[in-house]
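Thread amino acids onto this structure.
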């Protein structure tokens, strides 16, 4: 029986935080929040005791990194969106031994990956926002992975994701993997970004995203994995979609047979393409 018990690709748009608060934007992203809550419930129901989050907000310019911290507690004001994510409170447990196992296996498979045990290495909001809305608190441990790999190839991320699966299967713990990032990610030009929160920045990106969704829902992974390197670049995929490459590799890459389940159907946020999608491991 597989130790990888759950997998998903999710959104982390900061407007969900505003949607929760009283004010003019209250409820504006209720659909995305509801999807993440449902995914959190399903993580719990799967029996997972840890979740690995492939975080497209953790930028790496060299190597792959895994946060092996034991505990994460504090408040975050995002440097990217300080008005949207302000004093955002979090309190989570890490899983140092799982982080070490993931990094060791990826390194063994030829891609240098480092597990860090440093109290001052925090979590990015690509990890914190989904953890908040999945309501996993301190019950399910979290291991965050750098998923914005500026100078890596999709092939390297494929190898890392496959190695993560190996490490998970070699362990005794049930684990969920969550890729945190959008599909196309061309945010609007600055001059108009606040006027168009629900419009795509270019129809080309939406059409590519919709085609990708179709391939995911019909399990056409051969085609999708073949198009991923070009799609990620042409549509400014968030983090160049290294989260997606690692996730799909953990699921079997082009041999994966699962069909995507759209928990929150495709939606547009500030020019980008988003969804909450469950991908059953096989
Ligand atoms: Fe993001």
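Threaded sequence (282 positions):
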């Amino acid at each position: 029986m597989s130790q990888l018990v759950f997998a998903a690709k999710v959104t982390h748009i900061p407007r969900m935080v505003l949607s929760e608060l009283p004010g003019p934007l209250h409820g504006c992203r209720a659909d995305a929040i509801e999807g993440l809550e449902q995914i959190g419930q399903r993580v719990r129901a799967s029996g997972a005791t840890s979740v690995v989050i492939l975080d497209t907000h953790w930028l790496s310019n060299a190597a792959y990194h895994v946060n092996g911290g034991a505990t994460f507690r504090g408040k975050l004001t995002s440097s990217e969106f300080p008005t949207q994510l302000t004093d955002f409170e979090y309190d989570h447990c890490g899983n140092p031994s799982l982080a070490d196992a993931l990094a060791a296996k990826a390194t063994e498979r030829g891609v240098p990956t480092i597990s860090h045990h440093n109290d001052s290495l925090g979590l990015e909001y690509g990890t914190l926002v989904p953890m908040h809305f999945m309501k996993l608190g301190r019950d399910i441990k979290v291991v965050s992975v750098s998923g914005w790999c500026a100078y890596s190839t999709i092939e390297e991320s494929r190898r890392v994701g496959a190695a993560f699966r190996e490490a998970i299967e070699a362990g005794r713990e049930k684990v969920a993997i969550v890729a945190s990032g959008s599909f196309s990610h061309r945010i609007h030009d600055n001059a108009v970004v606040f006027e168009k929160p629900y419009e795509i920045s270019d129809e080309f990106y939406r059409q590519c995203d919709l085609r990708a969704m179709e391939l995911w829902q019909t399990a056409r992974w051969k085609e999708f994995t073949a198009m991923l390197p070009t799609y990620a670049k042409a549509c400014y995929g968030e983090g160049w979609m290294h989260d997606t490459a690692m996730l799909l590799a953990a699921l079997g890459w082009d041999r994966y047979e699962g069909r995507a389940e759209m928990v929150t159907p495709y939606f547009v946020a500030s020019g980008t393409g988003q969804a909450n999608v469950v991908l059953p491991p096989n």
